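S.,

Sequence below, as promised.
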Amino acid sequence: MVPERTRDSPAVRARLSAISRETWLLTAIVAVGTALRGAWVAYAARPLGFPLGGDPLGYVIRADDLAHGRGYHSFLTLKPTAFQPPGWPMVLAAWYWIANHTPLPDNLWKEAGALNVIIAVVSMLLLFAIGRRLFDARIGLIAAGIYALWPNLIYYTGAAALETFFILTVLLVIWLLLHFGWPDAERVPLIGLVLAGLVTGEMVLVRPFGGVVVIAMVIVGIVAGRGWRKTLTEAGVILGAAILVLLPWTIRNGVDLHAFVPVATNFGETFCIGHQPHVGGDFVADTAYCVGPYDFSRIRQPHDEILRNSYTMKQGLKFALHHPVDEVRLVFWRGYFMLQGDHDGVDAVETGHNKPFAFIPNRPREVLVTVGDAFFFVVAALSLFALPRFARRAPAARLFVLLTGVGLLL
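The prediction came back faster than expected:
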């Protein structure tokens, strides 16, 4: 026990007062962020339909199928599919299963929004913990506050999209590694590496390029002087645990699709839509160049997805190899279209303001778009001003966060 005099000392009272302020401020931040998201979900989380419902529609249908034991099927062929990464639909399915066995309202789109609100709350807490670990409690509160008020993150809460959950998996991997002492501790507990690896596996099942976190970890481990052997051993444990997460899904795909598919069969299509004739760097739908004889109307059997994926990948690579000048030009335009604004969450809840799913009046929609873009550009500008100092004085843990962010951006 701490002696009474010690507890009553000015230093201890100041410390307890600071902790109390941090707790109250964090509670207020989380409360505001939760209230904004809850209100948006109540207003904007609405059913979408085929074909304009896009990815969120596919996630909801497959999650509902999984929750009722119907398997992971294509809603076009009603046969097994691996067209989309299954990580988010699986998590959504678990949430639906819980909702189906409780008095919660039977509304798939509102339920997805409610799950996104819970995910956002956890993300705010993780951001605070990461900021406090890398800098101090003040920076942690600022980070959590920015997330709480970020317009496009609020907009996406109303969509059954994977973005909110993917952010959570990235933050959770970073927090787990930092929490267990990596990269500063001489020895990192095995349980910490295994837990980080399991979350990494789930992150890859949501968005495969999330695996760049392992690359960032290897680079930082070497730079921090942990040595090749220790760094590769730690990375190997994480990869091993991640593979354990992927393995059941990969086996299922081998049985149902008769091919080796670790995650999904839409990699080729995703690559080709940005590497084909007349492409401008923005998003385009399937074209005859990419899909050729494998458009959706001709996908009859599960293995047809394998053929389609192979064909689209070859088409994309063929264009990239034969048009190197265009590839350099497209790097700029992809960056431009990616960073020109930050309001696509509004498009996600009403499928790009297309009828019959558009419900936000024009003027309020313009305000939402403007607020989202303005917030993004202000935060981006302030971050750029801070980046040189961050990079100059970055210990290994900060460098890890920086490289992970750059890897995801690229």
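The CA atoms of residues 33 and 149 lie 6 Å apart.

Coffee later?
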